[in-house]
Amino acid sequence: MLNFKEKPIIGMxxxxxxxxSPNFSGKIDEVVDVALRDAKALEKGGVDxxxxxxxxxxxxxxxxxxxxxxxxxxxxxxKIKETVEIxxxxxxxxxxxxQALAIAYVTNSSFIRVNILTEAYVTDQGIIEGxxxxxxxxxxxxxxxxxxxxxxxxxxxxxxxFKRSLGESAKDLVERGKxxxxxxxxxxxxxxxxxxxxxxxxxxxxxPVIIGSGLNLDNVKDLLIAADGxxxxxxxxxxxxxxxxxxxxxxxxxxxAVRKIRRGLL
Length: 266
Known about the structure:
Elements: E1 9-14, H1 28-45, E2 49-53, H2 67-83, E3 88-91, H3 97-107, E4 111-114, E5 120-123, E6 126-129, H4 132-142, E7 148-152, E8 158-160, H5 166-175, E9 181-184, H6 195-204, E10 209-211, H7 220-224, E11 230-232, H8 248-262
Parallel strand pairs: 1-2, 1-11, 2-3, 3-4, 4-7, 7-9, 9-10
Antiparallel strand pairs: 5-6, 5-8
Helix pairs in contact: 1-2, 1-8, 2-3, 3-4, 5-6
């Protein structure tokens, strides 16, 4: 499981289009191979965990209920679990909280990410409502309380239906939504949250606070000090380009800086 005392870094595996997606190549073996290549590079680079996400299944469905997506995502996660020795998590876009938990449970994964756990948001998929009530009951029914829920507050590419402070929304995520950790991101992929936003959430909740986007070698010293961990995707890719493969050397350099921060040397 994740040790938030060590400020864990979670590397992203952005899964190529899956069956059912408009851009699926027709070759599931290639999808698996690309995901495994990135997972191996992340582990070689020294990340503490991996989050597997159907990032390229655009345009996203509000809730991916189609059996081919769930089956193929389960296959990818299971293959990664068999390949790496670090914890693995699942995110099923846009807001497949129940489906992600089912996949994590079947594959014995450690955590899930939920974009909208509480409140209601206007998104490019329409209005999406939180799933905290169903998710917590489903966890209980499965006996899956050991699977951690990492939930976004004021998630990117969305606006809450009514305006609330970041801290107030984060507090409800933990106290009413039963989130195990809170993710704070910028407004778009690759954009970091501000130091002030991280501090506001950190002061509002008694739970780990995770940077969800935009962390890189230039800002890691300033931002990670205010958080309990981070999810890193774009920066770990070749040239920082999210469409390219994971570059193990970029991961190594980044993790060297993180280890110095952990020891108070940076």
